[in-house]
Design a protein that fits this description.
Oligomer: single chain
CATH superfamily: 5'-nuclease
CATH architecture: 3-Layer(aba) Sandwich
CATH class: Alpha Beta
Strand content: 5-15%
Number of domains: 1
CATH topology: Rossmann fold
Amino acid sequence: MDAVLLDTSVVSLLHPKKRGNPLLARYQAHITGKVLALSFQSVAELWSWAEENGWGEKQRAGMEDFLRKFLVIPYDFELAKVWAKVNAHSKKKGRRFEAGDAWIAATAVHRQITLLTHDRHFVDLDLPGLDVVSYVSEETL
C-alpha cells in the first residue's frame, strides 16, 4: 500500500475539530486507501495547538488518540542531511523556509513520499525529489 505524507495543513483537516471543512474534499482522493504518514515536525505543530489554547486533559487525550491513527516518521541522521539540502535549495530559490517546513519537505524527500499540503511554501519549489500535491494555488489570495 502506498503512503502519503500529510503536511500539518492537511492533517489538521482530518481532526475532529475541523470536521466538515469543505477543503478536505479536494485532498480526499489522495488520502483514501493510503497509509497516512506525518513528519515528527507535524506532530509537534499539532501539539502546539494544545499548548497555545490551554487544552485540558480530555482534549489532550483526544489528540493522543487522533495521532495514533498515523504513521509518524521520526528524525534520523540522514534526514538531517536532507534538511540541510532542502534549506539551501529554498534559499537559492529566494523562498526561505521556516525550519519546521524544511523538516516536513525533507521527510518527504528522504522517504520518497508524496507530500499533501495546503501551504503555499511548498508549491513550485522545484526541489529535486519532492512530489507535492496541493490545491492552494487554485485559491484566490
